C-alpha cells in the first residue's frame, strides 16, 4: 500500500524537476524614451516566454505594447518586434509612436453641496491636464478616484457620477474628457450612543473633536478613536457610523403563492384578495412617500468600549558594574473612578539607590491635555560620598498644546536629611517651578525616529520659609534618526546650572553629578563632580554631558553599537576639562522591549572597563 502512494508522488516530483524554469522577458525600446518607454518595459516584465509559441508571443508583445502606449495618448504606433536569442528571452522593440492624441474637450466639475467644498475645488484645480495638452489616462483616473474618496470621507453618501467617460478619436488625434459628480447633500454627525464605558459619558463627550450637527468628516472619527485610545481607559474601542437607517414597509412573509390569493366567484375570476391576507393600506403608501421625502441627513454613531484592566504591572531589570543589579517595578491604575482619575506608582531598587514615587492624575475639561497632578516620593541614596534620605510632594498643573509641547507649572516641597563628603544637614525647601517638554517617536518599542526635550526652571527663596535660595535650570535633549533601514543614530545632551549663594544648603538631589549608563559611560554612577581637599565628591553647580552612538543592524533584531560619551559636573561656568569614555555594545529587540549590553572604557584610565546592562525603552 505504501508503494502505491509513493509511486505517484515520485512521478510528480520527477515531472516538477523537468518543468522548465520561468523565463521573464527582457525588453529594450528604441525610438521612444521617458515614461512611455518605461511603461512598455514594465508591461512586458511579467511576461513568461515559455507559455507562448513564437508567433503567439509576438502577438502578446504587440498587444501589451499598444496597451502601454495608449495610456500616454499614442493610439497608432508602428511596432517592429525583434527577438534576440533562440529562447526568445530578450526582445528589441523599434517603435514609431505616431501622432499623439490631444485633449480637445474637457468638462470636469462637481454639483450639489460639494460644489462649495474647498476640498473638491482644490482637487479639480490641481488636475494637471487642460485642453490642448497631450492625453494621459493616469491623471484622469486619479481624479475620478480622488473625488469618490472625498465624497465618502466628507459625508456625501448619495453622490453619483452623472458623467464619467473618456472619448478618444484616434483618427482625429482628439480626446474628450467628461467627469461630472453630483454629490447630493452633505450628511452631518448625528446622535452618539455609548455602550460598555465605565467612564462618565460627559467626560467622553469632552474629548469629541466635533459636535452633533457638524458636517461629517471621517478624519474626525479617526481622531476621536485615537483620543479614546490615548486616555488608556479602554482595552478595546469601536467607533462605528450608521450611514443609513432606512424605514421599510413590507408585507409579512407568506407561504401561499400569489395565485392562491384570488378567488373564483360565480364562475368568474375576482381580483379581490382574501380578507385574511395582509394588505397595504393607502395611508401606509402615503407614509412611505413622506418618509422618503424627509429622510434624515445625519449619521448616528455607535461607540462600543471595553474597560482597560484596572491594575497593570511592568517590570524592568538592569546591571552596571558600579551599582550592581537594578530592578524597577511599576504599578499603573489607568482609571480609579467614573471621572477617569488615575494613579501610578514606580519602585526602583539598587544597592546604592532606592526610590518610590507616585502620581495621582485628575483630568480636567480636556482630559488628554489639561490635568492636575499630585506627585510624591521617597528616596534613599548611599552613593560614593553621598548619603541622603529625601521625601517630596509636588502639586502641578499640566497643559498640552497643539504643537505637542507640554507645559507644567508646579510647586514642590522637599525635606532632605543628607551627608555630602564631611557636610551634614537637614533642609526643608519650598520652591515653584515651570517646565516645557515634548516627546515624539515612531515605533515606540524600538524607535526608528524620535526626539525628547525638557527645559525646566526652579526658584527657591527664604522669603517663604525655604532653607536655601537658588535658581536652578536644566535642559535635556535626546534624538534618534535612521540612515536607511540598517543604520541608527542616537544622540543625547544634558545641561544644568544652579545660581546660589547657599550652596552648602543645597541638598545632593539638586546638585549635579555625572557618570553612569545614562550619562558618561565608562565611569561609575555619579562619580564625576568637584571634590574637596581630601578627594571627596561635593557635587557641582554646573553640568554638561553629551553622547553620540551609532548602531548597525547585524541580522534580524540584533544590532551592534559603538559610542562616545563626554561630560562633567563643575563649579565654573565653563569646564576646565571633560571626562570621555567610549565603548561597544549589543542591542536585541526582544518581545518585552530592547535589551542593551555595553562595555565602556574611560580615556583617563587604561585599565578600567565597565559593563552596563539594561532592559526597556530609550525614551
From TrEMBL:
Principal subcellular localisation of the protein: membrane
Signal peptide from the UniProt entry: 1-24
Every TamA POTRA domain range: 27-97
UniProt-listed Pfam families: Omp85, POTRA, POTRA_TamA_1
Lineage top rank: taxon: Bacteria
Residue span(s) of domain POTRA: 187-243
InterPro entries from the UniProt entry: Bac_surfAg_D15, BamA/TamA_POTRA, D15-like, TamA_POTRA_Dom_1
Cellular localisation: Cell outer membrane
Keywords (A to Z) from UniProt: Cell outer membrane, Membrane, Signal, Transmembrane, Transmembrane beta strand
Residues of the Bacterial surface antigen (D15) domain: 325-619
Protein family per UniProt: Belongs to the TamA family.
Subunit structure: Interacts with TamB to form the translocation and assembly module (TAM).
Protein name: Translocation and assembly module subunit TamA
Organism listed in the record: Litchfieldella qijiaojingensis
Species lineage: Bacteria, Pseudomonadati, Pseudomonadota, Gammaproteobacteria, Oceanospirillales
Amino acid at each position: 500500500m505504501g508503494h502505491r502512494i509513493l509511486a505517484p508522488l515520485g512521478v510528480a516530483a520527477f515531472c516538477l524537476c523537468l518543468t522548465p524554469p520561468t523565463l521573464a522577458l527582457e525588453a529594450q525600446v528604441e525610438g521612444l524614451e521617458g515614461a512611455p518607454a518605461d511603461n512598455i518595459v514594465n508591461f512586458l516584465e511579467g511576461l513568461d516566454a515559455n507559455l507562448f509559441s513564437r508567433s503567439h508571443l509576438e502577438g502578446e508583445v504587440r498587444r501589451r505594447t499598444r496597451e502601454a502606449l495608449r495610456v500616454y495618448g499614442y493610439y497608432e504606433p508602428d511596432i517592429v518586434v525583434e527577438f534576440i536569442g533562440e529562447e526568445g528571452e530578450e526582445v528589441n522593440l523599434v517603435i514609431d509612436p505616431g501622432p499623439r492624441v490631444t485633449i480637445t474637450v474637457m468638462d470636469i466639475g462637481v454639483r450639489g453641496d460639494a460644489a462649495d467644498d474647498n476640498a473638491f475645488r482644490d482637487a479639480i484645480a490641481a488636475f494637471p491636464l487642460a485642453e490642448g495638452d497631450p492625453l494621459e489616462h493616469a491623471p484622469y483616473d486619479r481624479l475620478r478616484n480622488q473625488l469618490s474618496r472625498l465624497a465618502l470621507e466628507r459625508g456625501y453618501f448619495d453622490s453619483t457620477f452623472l458623467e464619467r467617460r473618456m472619448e478618444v478619436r484616434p483618427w482625429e488625434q482628439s480626446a474628450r474628457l467628461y467627469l461630472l459628480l453630483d454629490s447630493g447633500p452633505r450628511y452631518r454627525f448625528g446622535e452618539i450612543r455609548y455602550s460598555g464605558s465605565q467612564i462618565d459619558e460627559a467626560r467622553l463627550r469632552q474629548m469629541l473633536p466635533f459636535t452633533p450637527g457638524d458636517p461629517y468628516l471621517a478624519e474626525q472619527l479617526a481622531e476621536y478613536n485615537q483620543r479614546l485610545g490615548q486616555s488608556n481607559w479602554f482595552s478595546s474601542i469601536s467607533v462605528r457610523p450608521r450611514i443609513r437607517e432606512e424605514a421599510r414597509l413590507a408585507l409579512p412573509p407568506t407561504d401561499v403563492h400569489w395565485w392562491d390569493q384570488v378567488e373564483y366567484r360565480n364562475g368568474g375570476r375576482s381580483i379581490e384578495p382574501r380578507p385574511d391576507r395582509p394588505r397595504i393600506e393607502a395611508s401606509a403608501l402615503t407614509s412611505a412617500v413622506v418618509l422618503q421625502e424627509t429622510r434624515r441627513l445625519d449619521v448616528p454613531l455607535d461607540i462600543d468600549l471595553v474597560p482597560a484592566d484596572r491594575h497593570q504591572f511592568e517590570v524592568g531589570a538592569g546591571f552596571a558594574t558600579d551599582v550592581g543589579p537594578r530592578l524597577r517595578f511599576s504599578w499603573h491604575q489607568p482609571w480609579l473612578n467614573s471621572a477617569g482619575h488615575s494613579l501610578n506608582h514606580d519602585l526602583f531598587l539598587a544597592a546604592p539607590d532606592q526610590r518610590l514615587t507616585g502620581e495621582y492624575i485628575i483630568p480636567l475639561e480636556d482630559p488628554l491635555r489639561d490635568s492636575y497632578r499630585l506627585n510624591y516620593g521617597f528616596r534613599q541614596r548611599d552613593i560614593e560620598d553621598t548619603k541622603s534620605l529625601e521625601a517630596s510632594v509636588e502639586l502641578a498643573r499640566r497643559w498640552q498644546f497643539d504643537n505637542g509641547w507640554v507645559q507644567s507649572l508646579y510647586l514642590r516641597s522637599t525635606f532632605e536629611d543628607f551627608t555630602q563628603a564631611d557636610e551634614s544637614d537637614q533642609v526643608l525647601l519650598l520652591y515653584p517651578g515651570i517646565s516645557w517638554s515634548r516627546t515624539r517617536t515612531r515605533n515606540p518599542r524600538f524607535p526608528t525616529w524620535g526626539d525628547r526635550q525638557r527645559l525646566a526652571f526652579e526658584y527657591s527663596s527664604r522669603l517663604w520659609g525655604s532653607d536655601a535660595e537658588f535658581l536652578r535650570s536644566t535642559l535635556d535633549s535626546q534624538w534618534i534618526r535612521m540612515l536607511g533601514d540598517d543604520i541608527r543614530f542616537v544622540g543625547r545632551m544634558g545641561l544644568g546650572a544652579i545660581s546660589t549663594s547657599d550652596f552648602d544648603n543645597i541638598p545632593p538631589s539638586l546638585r549635579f553629578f555625572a557618570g553612569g549608563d545614562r550619562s558618561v559611560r565608562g565611569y561609575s554612577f555619579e562619580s564625576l563632580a568637584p571634590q574637596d581637599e581630601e578627594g571627596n565628591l561635593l557635587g557641582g553647580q554646573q553640568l554638561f554631558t553629551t553622547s553620540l552612538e551609532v548602531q548597525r543592524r547585524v541580522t534580524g533584531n540584533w544590532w551592534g553599537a559603538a559610542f562616545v560619551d563626554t561630560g562633567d559636573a563643575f563649579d565654573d561656568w565653563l569646564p576646565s576639562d571633560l571626562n570621555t569614555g567610549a565603548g561597544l555594545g549589543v542591542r536585541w529587540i526582544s518581545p518585552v522591549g530592547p535589551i542593551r549590553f555595553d562595555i565602556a572604557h574611560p580615556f583617563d584610565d587604561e585599565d578600567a572597563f565597565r559593563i552596563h546592562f539594561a532592559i526597556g525603552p530609550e525614551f
